[in-house]
Amino acid sequence: MSDINIDNWWLPFTNVRAFQDNPRIFSRAEGCFLYKQDGSEVLDITAGLWCCNVGHGRREIADAVHKQLMTLDYAPPFQFGTPPGFEFAQRITQHTPADINRVFFTNSGSEAVDTALKIAHLYQHARDKGGKQRFISREQGYHGVNVGGTSMQGLPTNRHGFPVLDRVDFLPGMLDISRNAFSRGSPAHGTEEMAAAFENIVAMRGADSICAVIIEPVSGAGGMVPPPQGYLKKVRELCDKHDILLIFDEVITGFGRTGSAFAATEFDVVPDIMTTAKGINGGTVPMGAVLIKDEIQQAIFDAAPNTLPEFFHGNTYAGAPVAAAAGLAAMDIYEQEGLLTCGSGEKGKYWEDALHSLADLPQVIDIRNYGLLGAVSFDPMELPAKSLGPKIHQRCFDNGLLCRAVGDNMVMSPPLSISHQEIDLFISRFRQSVTEVLGQPSSPAVATG
Ligand SMILES: Cc1ncc(COP(=O)(O)O)c(C=O)c1O
């Protein structure tokens, strides 16, 4: 039991009363490990919350932050700039698709999403298409917690009960275990159904009323679901056909998660706007960003009076020098250690094979992976839906493993710096934990894929 007073901090997305009965507190981190207060280690197979992509406790980032604090801790970003902010914006655009070169910094993924929605609106107004006010999102989608992002939420519990914009239609979610179970990478089925649903929405609402589509290239908080083959290219094609903007929410997929710097490159699709955060500076200082096609910024600038800000929007800590300095140091690590692409190379393959070796565990109904992302889905059988995942999660934690439960799916997103040995450790701790909860596998592992 902790000797810290835990009464005052209301934890986000937490059953606080359960937490108070069983506090789970980390006090230190290094590499791929978090440490509990009693000093015991926990293998962090979630990279914090999909963000500590370069591993914990990187001295290079700490030194850069310290140096920046002692050089220029803060300067206002409204009407002024700083060297690290400009330098980091330029470094990011070295990894974005060719036409995406404009960076609007925020403090989080949620702010990036709401900023992107506003930019999309502004752009439609700038080209006299102000009637385009609706959005298309997707069931199971997660787009943060601000009002715009909450309105785009395809996860009902995150949406219901809040005052949201009602101008949103939803494409079907991508998880289809009945047809795609145990796929490696992009599964075969789902693109045609998405296209039909897309066309139905356009037919029902009229293309003239639709501003943008916002989707995660890989569904993250909805259970780690890669896009079916051809899916993202088809979305791009339909957006072009109907003159609708395409926003990729790359808050999770940005900075190497899929095996390319951004999923846009990985899937060879150029969206109009991208949102990102999480891995932007290795999860060290709050920061997010919206990445925008040149022509969109240009159209907005052309339509704005040249005596006023082109965009009446921004945050006090936007592009804060300390966050940008952390980003530059993280970018050095990403580039020097080849982390932005390791998920599509030998490490990604090792991860895929390791994950699929779990197929013999009891009640496993699907295993899926992409880059350095993974998920194992369980059939809860006689248990109420969504209660098995938390049980496995707790047992994993007790056995020194942090993964994430999304309902009865166990979701993984390890630091990109993870070693083969640490992947093996994850597999053995996961196997042990599931076996303790559900019993031994009844038959030997089967080849899958
Ligand atoms: C796809 C996506 N968009 C937006 C967000 C919100 O980011 P933040 O928690 O930094 O506000 C998240 C967070 O997990 C996310 O996964």
In a few lines, what is going on in this structure?
The protein has 449 residues and is an alpha/beta fold. It contains 16 helices and 15 strands. It folds into 2 domains: 137 residues, Aspartate Aminotransferase, domain 1 (Alpha-Beta Complex); 275 residues, Aspartate Aminotransferase, domain 2, CATH 3.40.640.10.
Task: Give a written overview of the molecule.
It is a single chain. The chain has helices at 16-21, 47-50, 59-71, 83-93, 109-126, 147-152, 156-159, 177-180, 191-205, 231-241, 263-266, 294-303, 321-336, 346-356, 388-398, 420-438, and strands at 26-30, 33-36, 41-44, 100-106, 134-138, 168-171, 210-215, 245-249, 273-276, 288-293, 364-370, 373-378, 401-402, 404-406, 409-412. The chain is α/β, with parallel strands linked by helices. The protein folds into 2 domains: 16-53 and 340-438, Aspartate Aminotransferase, domain 1, CATH 3.90.1150.10; 62-336, Type I PLP-dependent aspartate aminotransferase-like (Major domain) (Aspartate Aminotransferase, domain 2, 3-Layer(aba) Sandwich), CATH 3.40.640. The chain has a 7-stranded mixed beta sheet, sandwiched between helices. Strands 1-2-3-13 form a 4-stranded mixed beta sheet. Strands 11-12-15-14 form a 4-stranded antiparallel beta sheet, covered by helices on one side. A hairpin with a 2-residue loop joins strand 1 and strand 2. The protein is globular. The chain starts with 15 loop residues before the first helix and ends in an 11-residue tail after the last helix. Pyridoxal-5'-phosphate (PLP) binds next to helix 5. Its cofactor is pyridoxal 5'-phosphate.
